[in-house]
Amino acid sequence: MHKLVDLITSLKLTIACLAAAMVLVLAGTFAQVHFGIHLVQQRYFQSLFVWWPPEGRSFKIPIFPGGYLVGGLLLINLIAAHVRRFQWTWRKLGIHLIHAGLIIMLAGGLFADLFAVESQMRLTNGETKNYSEDTRRDELAVIDTTNPELDQVTAIPEAMLRHTRVIKHPSLPFQIVVRNFFQNSRLQMVDESINGAQAIADRGVGAQVSVQPLSRATAPNERNIVSAVIEIVPVDPAGGATQISLGRWLVSDAVAAQQTFSWMNRTWQLVMRPARYYKPYSITLQKFTHERYAGTEIPKNFASRVTLVDPERSTNRDVLIYMNHPLRYRGETFYQAAFEKGDAATILQVVHNPSSLAPYIACIIVAVGLLVQFGYHLVGFARQRRRAIA
Length: 390
What we know:
This protein is an alpha+beta fold. It folds into three domains: about 1-115 and about 355-390, no CATH class; about 115-130 and about 280-350, no CATH class; about 135-275, no CATH class. Helix content is about 30%, strand content about 35%. The protein has helices at about 1-10, 10-30, 35-45, 65-85, 95-115, 160-165, 360-390, and strands spanning about 50, 60-65, 115-125, 130-145, 150-155, 165, 175-180, 185-190, 210-215, 225-235, 245-250, 260-265, 265-290, 300-310, 315-320, 325-330, 330-340, 345-350. The strands form five sheets. Strands 4, 5, 12, 13, 14 and 15 form a six-stranded antiparallel sheet that branches. A four-stranded antiparallel sheet has the order 3-18-17-16, with no helix packed on it. The radius of gyration is 28 Å and the shape is globular.
């Protein structure tokens, strides 16, 4: 036990973790040449180990500690060393502050990774939205469109489609049986297929479409086309027994056509779409401006003038969002991220980070700790010098 405590609180472990972190950052930076930034984050920083799959093998080998393991060990090392050597004296106040700042910084980074949510809001001139979309996650929206004034939406996350065979929900008078799921796919009309592929659905547009499974997209400018084949199985409301299937539908990112069916005098619509995060307020794009450097197509400045309306807080105001000047409201930050060709639409990056203040607080505490520590020694050195001169 003493050896374990000595190891956890040792300076050698601190140096090893810092060295591993530098190697990890360097390797992750080089990996972005071939892979997208989000995939690099998952493989190198949002994992306990960096895994290497041997070519032609189905298993993976851990070859280096990942970001979670390095950061977790460093956090435990700092806390354990601080607790073990803690002595409350004014002489060590600066050291205590520096340790506290580093602990807040590491813990804030962990909380940001676990709980921060990034999404996008695409707006055309005059368009109003009260939701943002996650371009890296999909959901299957089962929409009851019977009421002309109100749609009842049941959203099923992509992860549930991937791991759950039969999906039930109290708002649905039927079960959804997932027959096939494709993390990435290519869709092609059956009559245009050269290899004789057959449709794997028998209802909607999927009855004329074949699906070719693809490996997960890894290039920075590529995206996955998520697809699934689902079967609608009605359920007896009295006894709960399943009834005759209503058929199989192909739902996919690449299917833009509406797919509807009727059951129990209600009309339902099936849509595979980016996951949505609804807000208690709405944003309307009034005008998007795009300035370029003279004689070039290089963007000089692009900005979005929007109207923020929040009935709950009686808020109705115009806001200009442009580079390095985001909109912060209700714990979310709206950045001017991009725009579409022809200035047809603006794209706002929406970030919800509950620990966004942690880095600022940590830096202030560390700076104060350094000033206290060096100031204390400076004063002591000056006193000794005066005594020697006297």
